């Protein structure tokens, strides 16, 4: 598995990872009035994500491959729209990554 996370509340490493997909429920009327802003937001998000992929991820992946280490692609988080949440089994605390 990847990096072991610790709970910020109790310090336990007995935590579970869960991914939550963000969604927007706009409806027809909201999309008619604010649709152009939503599409501009998506376009800008993909443009920044593509730049992150080209200029940061490939560079860091080459460096980490030369060091025989793994690399977590940052652009994957940018494009997926999923938020990582951790749940502590000892104290019941929820925290984001």
Give me the number of helical elements.
2
- Major β-sheet strand ordering: 1-2-3
Please tell me what the overall shape is: flat
Question: Strand-residue fraction?
Answer: 15-25%
N-to-C terminal Cα separation, in Å? 15 Å
Radius of gyration, in Å, reads 18 Å
Average pLDDT reading: 79
Uncertain stretches of 5 or more adjacent residues: none
Strand count, sense and closure of the main sheet? Answer: 3 strands, antiparallel
Order of helices and strands: EHHEE
Strand element count: 3
Count of separate structural domains: 1
The helix/strand class is alpha+beta
Transmembrane segments: 24-40, 46-66
Keywords: Membrane, Transmembrane, Transmembrane helix
Structural summary, described in words:
With 97 residues, the chain is an alpha+beta fold. The chain has two helices and three strands; from the N terminus they run E-H-H-E-E. A three-stranded antiparallel beta sheet has the order 1-2-3, covered by helices on one side. Helix 1 runs antiparallel to helix 2. The chain is flat. It starts with 14 loop residues before the first strand and ends with a strand.
